[in-house]
Structures are given as structure tokens and as C-alpha cells.
Amino acid sequence: MHNSPLVSICIPTYNGQQFIAEAISSALAQTYKNLEIIVSDDASKDDTLSIIKNYTSKTQTPIHIFNHKPNGIGANWNNCLLKANGKYIKFLFQDDVLSPTCVEEMVEVLETNPHIGLVTSKRDFIVDKAHASKEVETWIETCGNLQRTLDLKVENNISIIDKSLLKSAEFLNPPRNKVGEPSIVMFRKDLVDKIGLFDENLKQILDCEYWYRILKYKDIAVIHKNLASFRLHANQATNVNNQNAITDYHAYNKILYSQYLKLLHPEVQKRLLRKYNLFYKVYYWVVDKFKAK
């Protein structure tokens, strides 16, 4: 690719020694070469950093390691964004793996389509044997194809999601994240100036909330090809969050009301207005009481 723009592969880490070597190796094995690797580490207590440092003398790809004071996963993700120099941001979590052509194929889409703000892809799953269960199988059936409920046109192996998704009756139906985990997306760094950083108050859905924030301004492209592998294991953040009674979905309704209301399906608008708008609370209370007579 001519005039290849710099891509920042951002790896937020914390006690990731079990899988970090595989993640770093997949980043360095990219067919696309104008890369930097940004590591933001939340005070790991294991060998995560020493494993990463071993790669610095084995590659010409810059690996920048930043020590970050722990303040939640969103703060660590945001530190990556703040330290990144690339035109494009490619997250890679410490337990996930990129396919060799992932960055190259995503950059191609973004460089040739200025209306696209973010590109995602399909993904494979790596399921740890100790974590295999009927529940995991069911999750893969439900979330294996994140766009399964959307009627997307496929052209040249790519589909486009525009902000009409927000108006769709399918928007809040499972799977809630219809774009993908951070390891399978790439987006334009300059969008950060427009939409801000990840919401650090969220723990579980801060990624899809961010993707939908992008969708308010730019379209999203879906490459119908598995370009990354998402690992499922007992210690990943999603499972830890599920055990800790995360309240993101209550906060998400308030975010939708305050930032997305006019873009949503009329029935969703009505539900949110009844919940959060005093005028509409009273109005619908009167209407419901009248109907009950």
C-alpha cells in the first residue's frame, strides 16, 4: 500500500503472562509493517512486562511500554489512546490473537472509504478446555455472529452499518454489541477528538457504547472474514465482571436517553421518556389512568 499510514496496536495489560506472548507475536507477524505497539500496563504483578520486553530486541517494530496507575479497565484503554501516535487505532487484548492480514485488510477499507469511521470483522474463538461448558456453547451460538439479526447487504465481502441501526427495532435486542470486541475493530484516531474517550464509569459495555458513539458520525464496515481470534477463559474481564454484579445496563439506558434519544426507535424513545422525563412520566400516568377507566 502506497504511503502506508501508521497504525497503533494498543495492548492494555494486567497480569497477562499466560497469553501475552501469543498476542505480541501475532501483532509482530502482521503483513502490514508501519506499526507501533503501545502497551499500557496496570501494575502487573506477574511476568507480563518482562515477556513483552524480551520482544523489543527482536523486532524493528517500536514497542512502547507505559506504566499506568490502575483505575479500572476504561482508564487503561484510554491511556493507550492518549499514548498512541497512529492514524488508526487497533486494539489487541492480552489474551487475543490477530490473523496475519488483519491490519492490512482493515487499513485498506479505511483508506479507500473516508465515510467509514470504524472497521470490524468476523472472528474465531479460542476456548480454554477448562472453561468449556454448555453455557459457553450457548454464548457462542448467540454471539458468534454479532450481526446475525441485521439484514445487511454484502458487497465485495463487506457490509456497511450506518446510524439507521440506532433507529432499528433490533438495536437493543441480543446480542447488544453488534460491532465486536475491541480486538476485532480498528478506528480512526482523529475521531477521539470528536467523541472523546471511553466512558470510565462503565465496566462491561464501554466498548459497544463507544462504537455506537462513532456510528453517530461515521459508518461502520464489517469484513466478512475471520481476522482475529477471541479467547474465552475463566479469568477474562467479562467473566470477572459477571461475577461482580456490574450495573452497566442501568447506566446504559440513561446514556441512550441523554445522548441518543432522537436517533432511536419510537417505542424505545417512549420507554426512555417515561422513565427519565418528568413531563412524560406525568403524561403517561394520566393516559394510563384514563385507559384503565
UniProtKB/TrEMBL annotation:
Q: What is the lineage of its organism?
A: Bacteria, Pseudomonadati, Bacteroidota, Flavobacteriia, Flavobacteriales
Pfam families linked to this entry: Glycos_transf_2
Q: Which GO terms describe its molecular function?
A: hexosyltransferase activity
Name of this chain's protein: Glycosyltransferase 2-like domain-containing protein
Question: Ranges for the Glycosyltransferase 2-like domain?
Answer: 8-136
InterPro entries xref list: Glyco_trans_2-like (IPR001173), Nucleotide-diphossugar_trans (IPR029044)
Q: Where is the signal peptide?
A: none
